[in-house]
Amino acid sequence: MATQSDLSCNGLVRRFGAHTAVNNISLDVPAGTFFSILGPSGCGKTTLLRLLAGFDRPNQGDIYIRGERMNDVPPNHRPVNMVFQHLALFPTMSVGDNIGYGLKRRKVPAAERRKLTAEVLEQVGLPGLENRNPMELSGGQRQRVALARCLVLKPTLLLLDEPLGALDLKLREQMKVELKHLQKQFGTTFVYITHDQSEAMVMSDQVAVMKDGRFDQVAPPEELYREPATPFVAGFVGDNNRLGGEVVSLEDNLAQIRLDSGELVRGRVASNEVRPGERAELYVRPESLVFAGSVQNNDYSVMQASVKTTLFDGANSRVEAENSGSLVYARLPQDGSAPALALNSSIKLSWDPRFARVFGADRS
Amino acid sequence: MKSSASRLSLWLLLTPFLLWIVLLVLVPHIQMLRVSFQVRESWDTLAWGLEQYQNFFTESYYWRTFVRTGVMSLFTTFLTLLVAFPIAWYIAKMARGRSKGVLFLACLIPFWASELVRTYGWMILLRESGLFSSWLQALGWADGPVEMLYNDVAVIIGLVYNGLLFMVVPLVTTLDGMDENLVEAGYDLGGGHATVLREVVVPWAMPGIVSGCIVVFMLTLGSYLTPVLMGGKDSAWFTEQIFTQFITRFNWEQGAALGVLLLVLSSVMVWLGLKLSGQSLRKVMG
């Protein structure tokens, strides 16, 4: 395994009885990057992380860290540290002892330990808190102590198990940015698992979207957003409208689809299961929809919809409309260009076909 | 009107407690303290003095028994902790669902019988004509009957067995509340089994350990049946001395003095234990 990557796995499988929690996962994380695993709860991401940390053994497959096989290495001998979901700071130790715990295990002398502890506390922005008890700290401060406790050991790989979940919204937004900066500052490879797509998108260099024990797509956040590879990714990452219809024709990677309402619209073909005459699903994001009154472009696809309600949420304001039984959301621009929308009034929504994705319909 | 009614209900609630604390705790102890300072001269005179306490210190048999009882109780408590910790760990952390309840019940069931019955159970196993002895002979490991009763080991076995439940319960309670992630974090940051136990698990379980130790120590120190039955005539347990003074020799003054000394000993030991472990009584018992 002569690769540059800090972590590489191939064919990892972990079964619990008849249930396969991790199903044949291979991944490769280059050194110094921020890698996120994004998925709904129960998709197996925590199991995967525990395999990496060494708390659990895979049934099949190998884990390599910097080219060394880790399968039979116990957790206390792996160059990997973990920030737990509920942080797991030792409540019977001071902040300083919490951070010094790992150094002590490496037989770092006391004076050196104090120096390193002070340094890392400085780096995470909590200078001089060594003698406090972790239970006296605020949620955000505890978060930083948990990070410092791992980072002081200079691990090859830092695993983070949804550590922001317990924080309130404002703090979470702030910690997101801070985590990203800390990762850059320390240059440590982060593997971060979360069910919150915004966390994954903001912080990561690469995001793996996980579903039922498998990776659906591994890509940088922007690619995930612009070119989702599967209907699941399209629906899970960001908001999306799903419109059902029948494929009429294919040309230049664009599919023409007859919606259930009878309208002809177009979108980019995203999977090779899209064939003329078969059913397909078109995904178009609320922010890609424009009100046809304002923009006139012949290339655009247009669809009629009747207004159900408007959902005002500042920059995120949307209108909920209906097109022959399916609900469609469209972003309401707050620059004064949005038309006045009366209930049940008919609007025309249009989009650039290049921003819509067409998948073959689920035949399940 | 309302306040008088609430005051009445407060008094009604307090009454049983007050009766208990005054009649069953305070009065007997004050009485015992008083008796212990009385000097026996004649039936119609009452003099005060420290004679009984002097006896304790000059008569080496008294204080030797006293020290021996204290040391053996400490040892028994420690041994009980060693035996109970793995049991409690298993019940709290390894057992799942039904087996957890069943195991807990298994610890509890022996305590449905009285201490006397439990001690006789051990005697059936350990005596010369008992089960263990006959097994040893059947296996050819012993030539004749082996007497395993009437020595210190037998006494300690009996006492550990009697104290076990009172150690397991507080330990299970504290260990139950411990987040498994703490143990995993202990390993994750580079600790081995011994380190994680010493640095993470034991500090967490300290309130349970101390509260279990206090209860077991007091029970052991004050136990009477087990040392007498399993240790025989020469078991030299301090409670036997007290019994002898009160019942056999009818020397209430001496018995009371010994009783007071036992109370002082157990209080001092509990205080020391709390000081050394850095726990407070409120934290441990609350």
What does this structure look like?
The complex is a heterodimer of chains A (364) and B (286). Chain A is α+β, with helices and mostly antiparallel strands and 364 residues long. Helices cover 23% and strands 35% of the residues of chain A. Chain A has 8 helices and 20 strands. In chain A, strands 6-7-8-3-9-10 form a 6-stranded mixed beta sheet, with helices on both faces. A 5-stranded mixed beta barrel of chain A has the order 11-12-13-20-14. In chain A, helix 2 runs parallel beside helix 4 (139-151). Chain A starts with a strand and ends with a strand. The mean pLDDT of chain A is 87. Chain B is mainly alpha-helical and 286 residues long. Chain B folds into 2 domains: 1-36, no CATH class; 60-285, Orthogonal Bundle (MetI-like fold). Helices cover 77% and strands 1% of the residues of chain B. In chain B, strand 1 and strand 2 (47-48) form a beta hairpin. In chain B, helix 3 packs across helix 9 (193-221). The two termini of chain B are 35 Å apart. The mean pLDDT of chain B is 88. The interface between A and B is medium-sized, with 26 and 18 residues.
In which order are the strands of the major sheet of chain A placed?
Answer: 6-7-8-3-9-10
Query: CATH architecture of the largest domain in chain B, please?
Result: Orthogonal Bundle
CATH topology tier name of the largest domain in chain A: Rossmann fold
Hey, roughly how much beta strand do the residues of chain B contain?
under 5%
From the alpha-carbon coordinates, what is the Rg of chain B to the nearest angstrom?
24 Å
The CATH class of the largest domain in chain B is identified as Mainly Alpha
Report the sheet with the most strands of chain A, covering strand number, pairing sense and barrel closure: 6 strands, mixed
The CATH topology of the largest domain in chain B turns out to be MetI-like fold
Straight-line N-to-C gap of chain A: 40 Å
Question: What pair of chains forms the biggest interface?
Answer: A-B, 26 and 18 residues
**What is the residue-averaged pLDDT of chain B?**
88
- CATH class term of the largest domain in chain A: Alpha Beta
**From the helix content, strand content and strand pairing of chain A, which structural class follows?**
alpha+beta
Poorly predicted segments of chain B? none
Mean pLDDT of chain A: 87
Helical stretch tally of chain A: 8
Q: What's the β-strand tally of chain B?
A: 2
